[in-house]
Design brief:
The complex is a heterotrimer of chains A (557), B (154) and C (324).
Chain A (H helix, E strand, L loop, with lengths): L1 H13 L4 E10 L2 E8 L8 E7 L13 E4 L25 H21 L20 E7 L10 E15 L2 E12 L5 E4 L4 H4 L4 E9 L22 H13 L7 E9 L5 E9 L5 E6 L2 E6 L9 E4 L2 H4 L7 H4 L2 E5 L3 H12 L4 E5 L3 E2 L16 E2 H12 L9 H14 L4 H12 L3 E4 L4 H9 L5 E7 L5 E5 L4 H9 L26 H20 L7 E6 L5 E6 L1
Parallel strand pairs in A: 5-7, 5-14, 9-10, 15-16, 15-19, 19-20
Antiparallel strand pairs in A: 1-2, 2-3, 3-4, 6-7, 6-9, 7-8, 10-11, 12-13, 17-18, 20-21, 21-22, 22-23
Helix pairs in contact in A: 1-2, 7-8, 7-13
Chain B lengths: L1 E4 L4 E5 L1 H13 L6 E9 L4 E8 L4 E4 L2 E4 L4 H10 L5 E10 L7 H12 L9 E7 L4 E9 L2 E4 L2
Parallel strand pairs in B: 2-4, 7-8
Antiparallel strand pairs in B: 1-2, 3-4, 3-7, 5-6, 8-9, 9-10
Chain C lengths: L2 H11 L6 H22 L7 E2 L2 H4 L9 E7 L10 H16 L3 E5 L4 E5 L9 E8 L6 H4 L2 E4 L13 E4 L1 H9 L3 H20 L7 H14 L6 H15 L8 E2 L2 E5 L6 H20 L4 H4 L4 H8 L17 E3 L1
Parallel strand pairs in C: 2-5
Antiparallel strand pairs in C: 1-2, 3-4, 4-5, 5-6, 6-7, 8-9
Chain lengths: 557, 154, 324
């Protein structure tokens, strides 16, 4: 078998045009290694690569190709990995010969694009930072966009807070967020925005310096040793380091992150973190002209940590609802199965201003088909959901919420309809939201809301038993529309087979998380599309079909 | 007592004695639910209902939160009441909510709807009486089914 | 369900006379505003008159619209006076006079007066439409007026355009039809207005719906029940409104095309609303109630006539009933 594979690899590679095997492929500890030289038009001389083929080949492993083309002389070029290998991602093929052809084609394309034509991609690529443990742990720091203009070589203190301990493959990983920047004399410069739960975390001291220019020699690799910083870091800053270390000498041995800031575009700052240890700062004192001066330990390696830009545009960069929704202030009334799914979908899709009303307490049996977790036990749904969303989105900012707000809301709405002045107060309150979603299935509420003069987009969502239909009312006649749909003569659904756990005071409809979520997501997609197209959102019904295969029919009114 | 469902312009009346009897009958089965059939007749161009009698079921199942009566033996009663003057007939149902309020549950609404969908029931607007019996006080709520919805008499 | 019976009930429960008190308040207020205008402008104004749905007998009681047309003389605002001056002058006058008791708003071609709710909670709305005769003293002969377009609607640009129209000709457009046809036309116009009122802030003007209904009657053999007639109109709107050469000529001014009051997108929306409505009603006629609801306020008192459901035979309780 093994011998066959080796023979096959050698034969295939040999037959690829422009490729010469310099050293035959052989097996070393389950890795097939060989040397090839690749020539293509535009090159003066062929380029040699050491090729490593792993046993999984032609399949991928952990999202990486299981073949490497290495030439450490190429490290200054784009798309070269730390070990000097070319970063390639090619089409899938289970056939060895085909996959080898794809991969070598990719190498040739790389040579043409980045070696010969020296193309630089339009998007900025982050510097390559070697991932190293500091002591026995990896450190990761998350930062956000700030509304502040640093001047070159401005330095000072910052606060960070630990978020959590994770595992990064097999290593411990400590995660933290940057909270606030201070000047060198500890005046507050700028606060970093996160949700209030994160803002309330315990703060620790770190340092920063904004060096403006990218800390790299070839724009690819971040500086490796402190000597690279000799001409960059101003003497004042080295003195500051010495001062800080001296002041913290009681905490000898503890770590203190130093953040290096630089512009990756005119408007965007990137931060890299260096792990410093109190007592072992990379500086020493030298007497020059009778004066002690701090100098860098040039030969020492820099302990880079990981950083991630978690600003809104990257956090929601992979996909979000349309801006008309994400920029809206949203109120969700009723956060049972439907409401909590809507809330979580919004929070994950870029919405930040979300308030909830519900005076129910979450029970363990709610967990199976809503967005709540078992771990928080009996807990007001509002408080519980707010916590869930705090954990998901660093940008979630509820303005009102919690149980007492819900009680007050319900009382306010239901007891004031007959009084004209209070009615206008209610209208003012409701209209302070851009979107209000009513998921209560409470006909009283539906009626009351339909009596108000509203400028806000009010959307009422309800589901029939067995999640056979979803009814979404969006227009002024919402009360009549929903009443007509559910009056027993329009929608056909089972009204007998309700879930009756311990009595029948509040039987609930039967449906699973999957049943409900399928319809809710479909509805949200439709709503999002209408908002995006700036079209009128009409009342609609989603009808499901289960004969044969499952189908959802959208019926607009 | 006399009550009115203002919105739909229907009214009813019932003797306090009859209400007390039903309440007492209900207490026998406390803490479980209990109930029965209501009989009476319409007057004033069918706008006003006079409830005259309650008939208890011979067979029933009940729990704290549930009451299911059968119609065994009811036929004789139907004819008996029909022969009286004025002629009386089946007009609705009653049951108790022990230790609880006198508000119709979803199951109650569904039960009322199923009366009108039963081919022989012949009544279009069945009445529902719920006796909410808690230690401190007894509450009565009368409802009528109209256009698939329950309306409360006040 | 008998669809036509339901529609008749919809019209009945929306009859303006059902809100006699509110109607009286409107008429009274309209007269007040009319007198104020006459007092202010004296010989520069011809008698203002009501041109709204009440005048056309197509009013509904959920949304009162009283349009008070105010015909000014050609030189009322100086011999070089502009339509804009006229519009602003009337606005300033009304604003000063009513700012403490009403919201005074500049609207498309009118000035809206929305009086704050009185102690019975009633809100009175009157739209004043200033217009100017073409030439001095010509109004008495031809009743033609120029209107000022305050802000853009449909394809009319704000400020720049003026609409010439003969409002009395518009009013007579329906009045002049044969009685039987006139009744059907009015019924359908009322139904469409009820539908529109239900949609909230719908861009299509009532006048547009009036004209398109009349146009359907002009172009089709309209027979059958009320529902069948309505359906024909709905289908006509669905099929025609988005056509490129579709026109709705203002009977008050043949160069005024009401089709221009809607944008292309608004026409598409109107057509697709008609399409959805027809589909939903044909799937389930109950859905008719969603589009054309009875006015609850007057519905249930009427249905009281029925009383408790009539019995035929001895009522028998269903064998098994389960209560909670």
């Amino acid at each position: 078998m093994v011998a066959n594979r080796l023979r096959e690899i050698n034969a295939i590679v040999e037959n690829i045009p422009g490729v010469i095997i310099v050293k035959q492929f052989e097996l070393f500890d389950e890795v097939t290694k060989g040397y090839i030289s690749v020539f293509t038009e535009g090159l003066i001389k062929a380029i040699e690569f050491e090729v490593e083929i792993y046993s999984q080949y032609p399949f991928k492993w952990h999202d990486s190709e299981t073949i490497k083309f290495i030439n450490s002389d190429l490290s200054a070029y784009k798309h070269i990995m730390e070990d000097g290998s070319i970063c390639i991602h090619t089409a899938h093929s289970p056939v060895l010969s085909q996959k080898l052809n794809y991969d070598i084609q990719a190498v040739i394309s790389w040579i043409e694009k980045y070696y010969i034509n020296k193309d630089s991609d339009h998007h900025y690529e982050h510097l390559i930072v070697p991932q190293k443990k500091f002591k026995d742990t990896l450190f990761a720091y998350f930062f956000n966009e700030i509304d502040y203009q640093f001047s070159k070589n401005q330095f000072g203190y910052l606060d960070y807070s630990n978020l959590s301990q994770g595992l990064f493959h097999k290593e411990k990983c400590s995660n933290a967020i940057i909270q606030k920047f201070y000047s060198r004399d500890r005046k507050e410069l700028v606060d970093v925005k996160w949700n209030i739960q994160f803002k309330a975390l315990e703060k620790h001291v770190g340092l920063f310096i904004f060096i403006k220019d990218i800390p790299s020699i070839n724009q690819r690799w971040i500086y490796a040793k402190w000597e690279d910083f000799v001409d960059i870091l101003p003497q004042e800053f080295l003195n500051f380091l010495h001062f800080v270390e001296d002041r913290h000498k009681k905490s000898n041995g503890t770590h203190l992150p130093l953040f290096i800031g630089y512009n990756i575009s005119e408007a965007e700052i990137h931060w890299q973190a260096i792990m410093l240890e109190i007592g072992k700062f990379p500086i020493f004192g030298q007497k020059i002209n009778q004066q002690w001066t701090s100098k860098l330990h040039e030969e020492r390696a820099i302990d880079w940590a990981m950083t991630r830009n978690c600003s809104y545009k990257y956090f929601f960069g992979r996909g979000h609802l349309c801006e008309k929704i994400t920029q809206s202030k949203i109120l969700i009334i009723g956060i049972g199965a439907i409401g909590s799914i809507v809330a979580k979908t919004f929070a994950r899709s870029g919405c930040t201003k979300l308030d909830f009303v519900d005076f129910d307490v979450k029970e363990p049996e709610n967990v199976s088909r809503s967005e709540y977790s078992f771990v928080s036990g009996l807990n007001n749904k509002t408080n519980d959901l707010i916590n869930e969303l705090f954990m998901i989105s660093p940008f979630f900012e509820p303005s009102q919420g919690g149980y007492e707000f819900s009680e007050a809301f319900n009382y306010f709405l239901k007891s004031n309809l007959t009084n004209n002045q209070n009615k206008s107060e209610m209208e003012k309150f409701i209209n302070s939201y851009d979107i209000v979603i009513d998921c209560t299935a409470d006909n009283d509420l539906l009626y009351i809301l339909s009596q108000l003069n509203m400028t806000t987009s009010l959307i009422n969502v309800s589901i029939s038993n067995h999640a056979k239909q979803l009814v979404c009312a969006t227009e002024q006649n919402r009360y009549e529309f929903v009443s007509t749909q559910f009056n027993g003569k329009v929608l056909e659904f089972d009204v007998e087979d309700l879930y009756n756990p311990t009595g029948c005071w509040s039987p609930t409809f039967k449906a699973s998380y999957n049943d409900i979520n399928t319809l809710v997501q479909f509805a949200l997609k439709h709503i999002n599309l209408k908002f995006k197209q700036e079209r009128q959102l009409r009342n609609f019904v989603l009808e499901t079909e289960e004969e044969g295969s499952f189908n959802i029919n959208l019926k607009e009114f | 007592m006399k009550l009115k469902a203002e919105k739909i312009g229907l009214s009813l009346e019932i003797e306090d004695q009859l209400l007390n009897n039903m309440t007492e009958n209900g207490k026998i089965y406390y803490p479980n639910e209990f109930g029965g059939f209501l009989f009476g007749y319409y007057t004033n161009n069918n706008k006003h209902l006079i409830i005259t009698d309650s008939v208890l079921p011979i067979k029933f199942k009940s729990s704290r939160y549930n009451f299911e009566r059968s119609t065994e033996g009811i036929e004789d009663q139907l004819y008996k009441f029909h022969r009286e003057s004025p002629s009386k007939f089946y007009i609705g149902e009653w049951h108790t909510h022990p230790d609880s309020n006198a508000i119709a549950s979803i199951a109650d609404i569904l039960a009322m709807r199923s009366i009108i969908s039963t081919p022989n029931s012949c009544i279009k607007n069945p009445v529902l009486l719920i006796i909410g019996d808690s230690k401190s006080k007894v509450k009565f709520s009368f409802y009528v089914l109209y256009n698939y919805n329950l309306y409360k008499y006040e | 369900m008998d669809k036509s019976k339901h529609l008749e009930s919809v019209i009945r429960t929306h009859q303006i006379t059902k809100e006699q008190q509110l109607l009286d308040k409107h008429i009274q207020k309209k007269n007040e505003v009319k007198e104020a205008l006459e007092e202010k402008y004296g010989s520069n104004i011809y008698p203002p008159f009501n041109s709204g749905s009440y005048a056309k007998n197509t009013a509904i009681n959920t949304k009162f619209d009283f349009d008070l047309v105010s015909p000014f003389k050609r030189n009322a605002f100086g011999s070089n006076g502009t339509l804009e001056q006229m519009y602003n002058d009337v606005y300033d006058f009304l604003y000063d006079k009513y700012k403490n008791e009403a919201e005074v708003k500049k609207q498309k071609v009118s000035i809206g007066l929305e009086f704050y709710a009185d102690n019975e909670g009633d809100v009175i709305k009157i739209d004043v439409v200033p217009g100017r005769e073409f030439n001095l003293d010509q109004y008495k002969e031809d009743e033609n007026l120029n209107l000022y377009v305050y802000y853009r609607y449909g394809n009319f640009n704000s400020g720049s355009e003026r609409i010439k129209t003969n409002i009395n000709a518009q009013i007579n457009n329906i009045k002049d039809r044969a009685t039987k046809e006139k009744d059907s036309i009015r019924k359908i116009i009322r139904l469409l207005k009820i539908w529109k009122a239900n949609k909230g802030n719908y861009p299509t003007k009532s006048f547009f719906l009036e004209l398109i209904t009349i146009k359907t009657f002009d172009n089709n053999e309209i027979t059958g029940s009320l529902w069948e007639k309505l359906k024909t109109v709905l289908e006509y709107i669905r099929d025609n409104v988005t056509n490129e050469n579709f026109k709705l000529i203002d009977p008050g001014n043949s160069s005024n095309d009401l089709a221009d009051t809607l944008t292309t997108y608004e026409k598409q929306q109107l057509s697709s609303d008609m399409k959805n409505m027809l589909e939903r009603i044909s799937e389930n006629e109950e859905n008719l109630k969603t589009y054309f609801p009875e006015n609850e306020k007057f519905k249930e008192k009427e249905s009281v006539k029925n009383g408790y459901g009539a019995n035929s035979g001895i009522p028998i309780p269903p064998p098994k009933l389960n209560f909670g």
